[in-house]
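Take a look at the protein record below with the fold in mind.
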Amino acid sequence: MPSSISPDPSTVRYDGPWTHRDVSANGIRFHIAEAGTGPLVLLLHGFGQFWWSWRHQITGLAEAGFRVVAPDLRGYGDTDKPPNGYDAFVLADDIAALVRGLGDREAVVIGTGFGGLAAYNTAVLHPEQVSAVVAVASAHPMTLTKIRKSVYTGGYQNLLSWAQWPFWPERRLVAAGGAELERIFRRDGGPAWTATADFEAAMVRMRQAICIPGAAPAALEHLRWVARSPWQADGVRHREALTAQPVTVPVLNLGADGDPVIPVEMLSEAAEHCVGDYRQRVITGSGHYPAEEQPLAVTDAIDSFLRSKVL
């Protein structure tokens, strides 16, 4: 039976071949997991996840010669959970400030799902802090602004619609110890992964993390801003910024052949907004979580791309 006691945020600091510490950036405290030395690589998790979702890439990329940092994004895990600041601008400010707080001028910014949107946004709004972008199972933000025109049928639209309801989604996410989050992951993950012991173990930790006080509301506020931005002034400013400033750094866009949330056909438009070297690859045998479903393929693809562009 799931515990009715809310977990302490520090419970997400799992032991492993990495170190945990806090970094102050953009006015809040971020928890990070860090490993390796070399050029800085930031790993940004997606909706409902936390730093641990990158466990395979933390070790794999550190062994490949990179300094790898996986933060809990604003509102998640053991990072601070302020009542506001869940829009694209503040999240990009967070990432740029993290780079500076880690003592570097620039970083490769890698994001999966919602974290991929943050990677693109940071490259547009803070280009001086980003040396390359890798988006995993994530379309360019301008593509997602067209979702309401029914251009695409990916499950991302359903997720945004669900998140807009007041109060109820927060309650659903934490009910029965995070059972709703597991339902979402089972629906959107590939069947080969969701049938494994690795998936079961991952969900124990994911469910615990989303039940940390404040984590579920923060996760939903990230999505709510995306859903409401078409009618808000800051959403208009965001689209204007994306239109005026393309991504100039090298970009690797990794899709998954079985992704029901961001189908591969949603990725192609990103090339129109990237004026530097743009590459697209498809990870086979994966649903919406390729970094966990096909970790070796994802790590190898990132490593090969960065060796040609960063090292």
